Amino acid sequence: MLQFNVLGFPVVVQWFFWLIMALMGGAIRAETRDDWIDVALWVIVGFVSILVHELGHALAARKFGYHSTIVLHGFGGVTIIPHARFSRGQSIWVSFSGPLAGFLLAGITFALALVIKTEYQAVRTLIGFSLFINIVWTLMNLLPVLPLDGGQILREILGPGRLQAACFIGGIVAVLVVAYAISERQIYLAFLFGYFAYINFTNGHAEGGVIKG
Q1: Least enclosed by CB within 10 Å: which of 157, 167, 178, 207?
Q2: Is the model's pLDDT at 118 over the cut of 80?
Q3: 3-state class of 9 per DSSP?
């Protein structure tokens, strides 16, 4: 387990994070040196991108006077904000700040791609991975499914009296993603959203404390 600090926030990286990222990067089918380079680049970009996403949450929470701890794990990352008491607007902003950080990183990557003209395949691969993770994954994170940021935003918009409605919507959307993932043979995606469907339909997500994904 790796531990360090960034911008004053404690960061914990569990070993399972590296394993899942490597598997998602193609470690199982990697054979050649170039294959393993691509896996390493994917892991690096995934690590930086998810960390930036969580820092977006942490910085927004700090603005409202709360300290955070960032944990990167097998399912991505979370920002744990102990004892936080956000207003509805503050909670929506803290939830959206993670995806916003991802979109900003994608914008920076795109700008660099326009400026940097290179024939080095590794650089082009880094750019491609960064755009994919920070655009596609960020959009997926904004789906109205708890505990994703989109689900937390929906929960706050609907209000505390309509948690059941937020969970029902999240469960339906999660099932649709599972169906798509199975049709595309995306096993990890199907498993992940299958788990999300379960916790939405059973209201199994944590209600104590504040955790931003």
Answers
A1: 207
A2: no
A3: strand
